[in-house]
Amino acid sequence: MCGIAGVLYKQAGTHHIGQTLIDMLDGCQHRGPDSTGFALYGEDSDQLQLRFIVPTEETARKKATDNIATLLARHDATIKSEQSVGCSYQIAVDFDGDLLAFTKDIEEHAKLVSVGHTLDIIKDDGTAHEVDDIYHVGEVTGTHGIGHVRLATESAVRPEAAHPFWATGFEDIAIVHNGQITNYWKMRRRLARRGYTFHTDNDSELVAVYLADKLKQGETLDHVLETAIADLDGTFSFLVSTPNEIGYAKDNLAAKPMVLYETDDMIAIASEEVSLNRLFPGQSINSTEPAPGTFQTWSRST
Fold it and tell me: Residue 25's closest CA among 178, 136, 127, 114?
């Protein structure tokens, strides 16, 4: 049992996206006390933003960050800024080469969890408020985002196994997932033969790579979500986010809960009603529950 949440503000401008997701995830934290994560989308940056999981012990951290600097140098990626906090190391680089080859090489030697010009993934063990205490997620402004609280069932409790998952090799695409993909190994082998690399045994990583591969082939997000329902076996509800869109998909059994609330200004989606109520305390909202085997996407103004 895990909890997912997502919000997109349709109109141009930035909002307190970090605090919004903290509130939503705190509402469903009972569904996943092991770890919490956020995929946050801000304004488009001229530089490529990368975030890594690194050791917290000082000597091991220094070794890891030195290794990352060496990896970047051989791809002519110049570090313009850097910040190290908790188990996370965030950098901004100038890079204009082959992103798939670049990130594939880096992932063989470092724990890369987020890449993009608009996307930043922050995740760690603990609750939404505990993660916020370390990384100050509540101060982040942006346009949209998705989040996750995890009860570990398929892989270990460690930061790199937490959600959201970045779609490895593709910038600015992230997913959060509640459920189990029962044809995980079949789909993983199929994607591995296409050259993709997996770095955890978490089935949610598969969803991220599957979606990004379809988008790479030129398919729309709507069509990708439709084919995902047919191709992925199991019980699942998941959210996906791109630089300008957010969407959901539910399997045909609809065993995993999901509710949504939409206005002219925003769309909010979560595993439970209580997460939506956190956004509108004391108000009665007309939420809906997506039907089995459905999908939908929303876009923001640019």
Answer: 127
Does the global pTM surpass 0.85?
A: yes
Q: Are 139 and 184 in contact (CB under 8 A)?
A: no
- Closest C-alpha to 200, from 159, 257, 237: 159
pLDDT tens figures, 158-170:
787 788 988 877 8
Q: Considering 2, 115, 174, 246, which one is annotated as catalytic?
A: 2
**What are the tokens at 11?**
């109109």
The tally of domains found in the chain comes to: 2
The H or E element spanning position 283 is none
Q: Is 2 a catalytic residue?
A: yes
With a cut of 50, which residues of the chain have pLDDT below it? none
Number of other residues whose CB lies within 10 A of the CB of residue 56: 12
Could you tell me the two tokens for 164? 């959201």
Domain stops at, among 117, 148, 166: 117
Residue 122, domain member (yes or no): no
